[in-house]
Design brief:
about 240 residues; alpha/beta; five-stranded parallel β-sheet
Amino acid sequence: MGQVMFSYEQLEKYNETDVAIYRYIVKNLDKVAYMSIRELAHELHVSTSTILRFCVKNGFAGYRDFKQALKNEQQQLTTYEPQSDVSELANFFAKTNSAAYEQKLLPAIVALRHASLIIFVGIGSSGSLARYAARCFTNAGKMAFGLKDSKYPVSAFEQQHPVIFALSESGETPELVTLIQHFQQQQCPILSITNQSQSTVGKLSDWNFAYQLTHQRINGNYNLTTQVPVVYVIETLSKRL
């Protein structure tokens, strides 16, 4: 959707019902632009007053103005090619402003609060994110270390029974999987952020956050999948400690 319709500031203020309405509208723009308020409320199983509050929250005087903006948005979309990456991120951020998101983070927050040492691990670009994550948590007052070398002598950490936090877009990097299995043998809690929950890293973890965005590779299979959700979740967790 365009900036006029749903700004980042507006998405941040959405509750769970708002998110459901927003997602339905995004997926059914052509249909919603010609629906009555009662028809839309019926489709979403909410009251007409809930739809009206959603319109007002997004800066419209009423449902009629909102529908006209939708029609204008339709016209723009036929002129400009949609930016799918921006749309995906907008959907991601919309979902984070909900009780479900906070509930999902809670087990990780509990584990991280009680950790005497947190080791963030990642290979390649995820290794750089591991270093950044360690700095965020150190700034928040936790002892944290960022590890991007799978051959690092990790036995030095084992006496501290650290919490291991794995970062991997694919969730299938062999060196990372081997490292996680080593820490599992030492009974270390494993947390992870991956793109897909059904990845090997996701399945091996005691807690996993999967951001589920489109996997992108270019220039000879180099990974260009956005890592913005990883940074956002890491920063969120560091602020919840």
